[in-house]
Amino acid sequence: MDKARKLLIAGNWKMNKTVAEALDLVRGLQIEVGLVKEVDIVICPPFTALSEVSKAVLDSKSIRLGAQDLSQHNFGAYTGEVCAGMLKEFSVRYVVLGHSERRQFQKETDALINAKAKTALAASLKPIICVGETLAEREANITEKIVDTQVTGCLAGLTKEQMDEVVIAYEPVWAIGTGKTATSAQAQEVHAFIRQRVAALFDETVAKRARILYGGSVKPSNTRELMSQPDVDGALVGGASLEIRSFSDIVKNSI
Ligand code: PEP
With CB atoms counted within 10 Å of each terminal CB, which end of the chain scores lower, N or C? Predict the structure, then answer.
């Protein structure tokens, strides 16, 4: 697929996989897509598997490591939290921030996600910042208002140079883990809107370079159609990233 920006396919394993299971998955992915150069591949195991998975992808030509969250603080008395420096020990390059599950269950706000993004960037970690509306918000016709507020809040105070390291993931909450995918036209519409907002907040050059991923029930069968949209620059994959076959087929179908 000939696109303006290099596609990025990221797998969010969420709270799944023991270390042994994680190793089985990553070894299978190495065999299937370990030599892919056309797209960037990122896998985001749970914190507990980062150490072993990082060893498994150390020499990988294509697979990079991501984490699912980090603390906005760099050290100290924050029980249960994990900081950027700890992730860097395992060669983590990306970090998912503001996933809708964290917004919902941990009550994360745009201000907190913004603080985490700044901490990540200061440590040379690339944030994958998630935004997206709920079903009620879509039905109330306020998708753009919601996404605009999230994008503006999460990117506040970042420099144009920092924006080169930022990935945005549009994940309509109603499409996450539900089997309901946004149509490619629905995805394209919001992606184009996000790019327009990035241009307004920064400039056209920043907006043209920004990678905007789609997330929400991405599977091998809908990958081609979604990735063919001009403003869709990859996918953030949940459920389908947990199996070697489905995730590697998503990667292959995006090329
Ligand atoms: C996600 O949680 O980021 C996600 C997109 O999940 P799924 O692919 O399972 O809908």
Answer: N
Residue 237 alpha carbon, nearest atom of ligand 1 = 8
Confidence of residue 1 (pLDDT cuts 50, 70, 90): low
**Is 99 known to be catalytic?**
yes
What residue ranges define each of the domains in the chain, with the CATH number in brackets?
8-254 (3.20.20.70)
Question: Of the listed 99, 101, 133, 137, which one is catalytic?
Answer: 99
- Report the separation in Å between the CA atom of 215 and the middle of ligand 1, taken as the mean of its atom positions: 6
Residue among 154, 139, 135, 143 at smallest CA distance from 191 = 143
Ligand 1 atom at minimum distance from 96 CA: 3
The one-letter code for the residue type at 86 is: M
